[in-house]
Protein: DUF4974 domain-containing protein
Amino acid sequence: MEPLLIKRIVFDFFDGKATAIQRKYLEEWLTDEANHEAYYQYLDEWESQRPQFSVDAEKALTAYQRVLEDDQPTVTPSKVLPVSRSGLFQKWLPWGIAASITLLGLLGAYVFRTQILYETHRTAFGQTSEYKLADGTKVTLNANSSLRVPRFGFGNKTREVYLEGEGEFKVTHTANNQRFIVRTADRFQVEVLGTEFVVYARAKGKRVFLSKGKVKLDLPQGQQLYMRPGNVVTVANSGRYRLTQTKTARPYVAWKDHWFYFDNTSLTEVADQIQEQFGIKVVVPEPKLAQRRIAGNFRAEQADDLFQILAELLTINVVKKRHYIELTTPKHP
Structure:
């Protein structure tokens, strides 16, 4: 479909003039995720040409969810107004959310609420990526991680993002001292004004390393903890935490350049890191071998690089099985 044609259809829809055939075209076009960014660009342009309105966003969200749950027929919307993703029109936030929700209801709810409200940055196994948020904050995501950033209202009243995996944050301080919050699973969050820190949030627990500035942690059991530069807080899944001090940041930021930092690290822990970074399950069936310790810095952009290092360093066999890699000691005749 020609860009000018689909753009006119989007504009007609939000002007309340779209025909049934146009809505059908729009539905088919939006089933391709590659068109989503163009859709938001059209919303920005449409918004800049229309006067602003106000609407109850929460009420709109509730109505949308009721439609999904009850499978009620959708109703052709009246004139609606989307909001810009760029932050230039954040005061129009509520109506923008309602516009997107109404559109999705009409199109049969082909995407979920999270896709409407958040832009998600993801990294694949073995990949690290850098992002710059609208407020100037720089984020580096480790492999197998994701960061959700609100499409609407980010930097308006607060700055909140949602992390799964591991990421380094270099937070920009704002003139009005606006707080920046990193939320993870299990009601764990890091709150700052302007600082540099690394957050680790995976299945086996949470960890925060503070490089510069000062942060406040809200722990799962309702406790609050203030950190200073060099502090490392490790939180177990049970909720218990441990505060330590480190002299160097390298163990917590080495991953940015594909380095693995081992400091008396057991082979079992190395296997866990390989699965987190590269998505490859590693099995060490021999208890004695599993407890062998490693120290040193090793660069590995691919899993095979690290397996070769381990084979030479520990004199072990790396055996490829159907669904996993097995590490064993050589059998001597």
